[in-house]
């Protein structure tokens, strides 16, 4: 259930107070005439530069994949320190294209976390492969070497694995691959949440064979829709580039360049999953704001961390391994000791004008994946225990400190104070909440 309560229109954000340096407005509490929450779960901010860049492309006479896409690809590759980047229509398409390019045997088993977005499992199935669900550690919402090993027993001989950096938290890619008995050449990363994530001191982008990013409206680099595959493998990049546009040997842009020819051929199946120059121009302009937006996300996450330490029964997720968190989502667990269940809490917060979301309904809770995916013997107890607790709180660069305070105050107000506080003293010894290396001084 990624039912976000989004701010519905760009104009609403425009009415908020702009900050210095073209950064997003800092007042996200502008009154909404539409009845939308006044603390929305997410706000899509397309910067004035990005809007101008889109207009320029629209006026240029070339709006589909072309020069802007090429520039976005090279700037993005440099940003994540990868050799190659291929711009596509979505992260879902990126995952499918990356898996197809691995040339795995038809029906081959691909390990995928049980707690992920349904698009990831669709990508596996559309690539002609079989998802094998991997249980998660409820403290991190991420698979562990032990849960991977159990999934391997279920399928025998996995052909590949998809590693998710859930919420932007670094996942231990190499350890999980080792537990699966797979080389990193057979790992595809789902980095939909992970632009800005590092594992150890290495940026997510070239840790495995192919890494797939999303530019969906709520993501850390919002375009509206769009995706990117990055890789250090030149041959894989050629395959994916061809397959993103019908498998054609030359796209329309190349054919119109000086010396280009009208002929092309098709040697294998392809998708229609190219990025347009309008999207690419927006992405390039947005990328220039990215570091500022990340600083803001880290500051707000730090504020949540501090405020929520005083709220019994609301527990932020632990981070699975060392590295830098991208702070895409701020996910908490609503524990049994809290005053209400997660579902009721979502409604109560909505009643107070606070938008939230749930990431994710586990795949095996949906009939289609129960029919099509393999599951470990003994089921997925970690995912089943975690799901009723999962709650994503508002986090985006337009959020104000006052809004975070309001969310935390609402959460604190619903807590049965004395009994729960006493339990909290006992159940929460002073331990580090995470093992992150923080890039910004204000990080938690
Ligand atoms: C974990 C995860 N993977 C994949 C996707 C798919 O991204 P897109 O919407 O760009 O296809 C999403 C989108 O929300 C996601 O959250």
From TrEMBL:
Superkingdom: Bacteria
Keyword Transcription regulation carried by entry: no
GO molecular function ontology, one term from the record: transaminase activity
Signal peptide extent: none
Region (Disordered): 1-39, 419-444
CDD domains, per the entry: AHBA_syn
Alphabetical list of InterPro entries matching this protein: DegT/StrS_aminotransferase (IPR000653), PyrdxlP-dep_Trfase (IPR015424), PyrdxlP-dep_Trfase_major (IPR015421), PyrdxlP-dep_Trfase_small (IPR015422)
Family per similarity comment: Belongs to the DegT/DnrJ/EryC1 family. L-glutamine:2-deoxy-scyllo-inosose/scyllo-inosose aminotransferase subfamily.
Protein name, entry field: DegT/DnrJ/EryC1/StrS family aminotransferase
